[in-house]
Amino acid sequence: MPVHASAVANCKTEPKPAVCKKATKAKSNKTASVVSRVPRRTSAVPSFGQLYGLHGVDDPLDLSSSVALVLDQDTNEVLLSKNPQAVLPIASITKLMTGLLVVEAGQPLDEPITITQDDKDTEKGTGSRLAFGTTLTREQMLHLALMSSENRAAHALARNYPGGLDAFVVAMNRKAQELGMADTHYVEPTGLSSRNQSSAEDLARLVKVADGEPMLREFTTSKEATVKVGRRQLAFHSTNGLVRAGKWDIGLQKTGFINEAGKCLVMQAKLAGRKLIMVFLDTAGSRQADPERVRRWLDSNPQALQSSSKLQ
């Protein structure tokens, strides 16, 4: 049977934070009582998940994420869920939709794109190793946006989309609607804005579609890449420690972080011979900890792979 923690439904914020509906506790074999845990977080700025009290929702695996969803990619069988309908900021998970639109647009991958002042982060004031004036191909920009979560690269890709940045954001939301992502809303292509929001159920749909694009699979799972910037060779690396360690069979992934979102991770990985989609939002502590908890749980409880619940 699947493992469920409480689902927080209709916690939607388009674009302002809304009040979450009261969460109810689901029974589990672990304990019959409700256990409220202190969030394992060092950031002084509370995430939306903290503000909504989602970290306090008990779950049998003692996850450090406010939101979690694990399902079989081929059958849609839900193996684990915790607040799967809660709508939260998704940070750079946004770039998975950005990458999907870039690939589907079919623009020349060898076309040069230049980083300009328009690509400066005015939302969070973050820096970048791609200086203004840097010119790379569309393919290189996409690689860095997906592997290293390069914000200027993602913004430049959207800016060079047919119709420009505004048309790109419209296309992002239109694509979300086409995929049935009813709880998802985008305002920009990088994930720096906390108004880019979604639910675990919606993101699972996005991962399933993105996994069908070979380039997205390749770029999100590569460990490192080197690009020539001026006279220098710059090495970029994956933001996902699980990818860098090489001990998982990961087909596609994307990480994210801003204070409002906490640490986020979506990925498709093969465990116990099945392709599983995993979504973890607003994680306190190590981003790798909850996937490892899930893997140990599945290894020790093979009956957990027999589920009757399906994501519609």
CATH fold field value of the domain at 92-202 and 225-245 = Beta-lactamase
Q: For the largest sheet, list the strands in their spatial order.
A: 1-3-2-12-11-10
Tell me the major beta sheet.
6 strands, mixed
Report the CATH superfamily of the domain at 92-202 and 225-245: DD-peptidase/beta-lactamase superfamily
For the termini, the CA-CA separation is: 17 Å
Number of helices: 9
**Would you state the CATH class of the domain at 92-202 and 225-245?**
Alpha Beta
Describe this structure in words.
- Strand 8 (224-229) and strand 9 form a beta hairpin.
- The protein has a domain at 92-202 and 225-245: DD-peptidase/beta-lactamase superfamily (Beta-lactamase), CATH 3.40.710.
- A 6-stranded mixed beta sheet has the order 1-3-2-12-11-10. A two-stranded antiparallel ribbon has the order 4-7. It has a two-stranded antiparallel sheet with strand order 5-6.
- It has 9 helices and 12 strands.
- The protein has helices at 48-51, 94-105, 138-147, 151-159, 164-178, 200-210, 214-221, 241-245, 289-300; strands spanning 3-4, 65-72, 78-82, 88-89, 112-114, 135-137, 197-198, 224-229, 232-237, 250-258, 262-271, 274-283.
- Helix 3 packs across helix 4.
- With 312 residues, it is an alpha+beta fold.
- It is 28% helix and 21% strand.
